[in-house]
Specification:
Layout: H1 9-18, H2 23-44, H3 53-56, E1 58-63, E2 70-75, H4 80-85, H5 92-98, H6 100-106, E3 107-112, E4 117-122, H7 146-151, H8 153-162
Antiparallel strand pairs: 1-2, 3-4
Helix pairs in contact: 2-8
Length: about 160
C-alpha cells in the first residue's frame, strides 16, 4: 500500500479559520450567492407555467456572511411544493400531447416573418389560464428545482469555487 504524507495541512486550516473576515470568506459567500442565482435561473427554464404565479414567485436569499453564508433558492407560491412533488400530472411536451385536441380548440399558432417568432393566439376565453388549455414549454416538469440542481451539480460547484 502506498501512503502519501501531506505536511502543512494544519497550517493551511489554521490560516483559513483566521481569514474568516478576509477576502477568502467574501469570495466564498459571493460564490454561494452566484450559484444560488444560477440554480434559480436554471429552474426558471423548466418550472411549469399556467398563470405565471409560480414562476414569478421564485427567489434566492442569502443569510449570514463569509464562511457562515447560507443560500436558499425556492418558490413562495402556496402550491409550489405540490407542483414540484406531483409526478402524476402531465407537464411540458407530455401535456401538449395529452391535451392536443383541447389546445387546438383554444387557439392557433401564428408566425411573424419579421420577428421570426411563433406565438399561440387564443380564441376568446377558451385558452385563458383559468381554462389552462394553451401549449406549455416543452421542458416544463415537476421537480423543477431538484432536477436542475442534480443535473448541473458540477457547474454549481465550480461556480461556488470560482466565486
Amino acid at each position: 500500500m502506498n501512503m502519501i504524507q501531506l505536511k502543512g495541512v494544519d497550517h493551511v486550516i489554521k490560516n483559513l479559520r483566521r481569514s474568516s473576515n478576509d477576502a477568502v470568506a467574501v469570495r466564498c459567500s459571493r460564490g454561494l450567492k452566484k450559484a444560488g442565482l444560477l440554480l434559480q435561473r436554471l429552474s426558471q427554464n423548466v418550472v411549469p407555467v399556467q398563470t405565471g404565479n409560480l414562476k414569478n414567485s421564485a427567489f434566492t436569499r442569502s443569510v449570514g456572511a463569509g464562511f457562515f453564508t447560507h443560500v436558499v433558492v425556492g418558490y413562495t407560491a402556496n402550491y409550489a411544493a405540490y407542483v414540484h412533488e406531483d409526478l402524476s400530472k402531465a407537464h411540458g411536451q407530455e401535456f401538449n400531447v395529452k391535451h392536443r385536441d383541447e389546445i387546438a380548440k383554444a387557439g392557433q399558432w401564428s408566425s411573424n416573418i419579421n420577428t421570426k417568432r411563433t406565438t399561440f393566439k387564443l380564441r376568446g376565453q377558451a385558452g385563458t389560464a383559468a381554462g389552462g388549455m394553451f401549449p406549455r414549454g416543452e421542458n416544463q416538469q415537476a421537480k423543477f428545482l431538484e432536477s436542475p440542481a442534480r443535473e448541473n451539480r458540477k457547474l454549481l460547484l465550480s461556480t461556488i469555487a470560482n466565486g
